[in-house]
Fold:
Amino acid sequence: MTTTVATPAQTDTAPGKAHLSDRSAVENRLGQKLVAPAVIVMVLVTAYPMIQALYLSLFRYRLTTPDDKGFVGLGNYGVILGDSLFWKDTLNTVIIMVATVAIELVVGFAFAMVMHRIMVARGLMRTAILIPYGIVTVVSAFAWQFAFSINNGFVNSWFHWLPWIAPQQNWFGDHWHAMFAIMASEIWKTTPFMSLLLLAGLSQVSEDMVEAAQVDGATWWQRLYKVILPNMRAAIMVAVLFRALDAFRIFDNIAIMTAGAQNTESSSFLTYRQVIQQMQLGMGSALSVLLFIAVLIIAFVIVKLFKVDLASARGEG
Structure:
């Protein structure tokens, strides 16, 4: 007669997995219940405008000539995709998104490290860093427009010693200087938001792991790349995702600082011109649909690039 005795590893593993699975199921159900009211409200508020925009995008419809409304199918999309202006504005938007998010990620991480490590006046330091994010975007855009002014701005007078800045530099006189001014205002305004998200992720990195790496002889850079950043991947993905989607929809800074002059239009500003200024509801609705699709594509690409396992990030893996 053979008796089979379960080893301690066998007896401990199965219940542990069952308990972990049950906990995950309970948390998922709780999460769904908590977000359900917000999701229902969002659907009720956004569903009709989205459906209406999709519907209007299939028509030739201008408010100044409402009797001329006619069904064109995908004709509006064909006109937009075949127009060089649409692609120029899209390129401007992508350049602004990539440049600002990349710089904000580096600067925001530096701010997050300072806020995480500082011991003296920690609350004051965090408040000071977050002040720009609390300013209304239109107000900050006006402030930066004044800062880059050729006559009264402080940028030329403070930084004229740099070889690429002349005392009478006209920042809004050509495309790239105007783009630089727009991106500088965007970076100043939204870097605190990036640093706040990265600070939340940095606080989740185990100090024991960092200290163990230091004891093993790892340099600061090795601890950063081998311990800190890998354990912050989920937080970095969220920060980049939020900021990339927000930067792709940039409108206020361009509307205030250049009004689209010097070929600085973004996709959102082009949509505004079609709907508000030219009253082309059909064409403007098609642009808004394409903008929505672009946002979905960007979100999908970012999530795929980071390859974050959210279950492992929560400690369930």
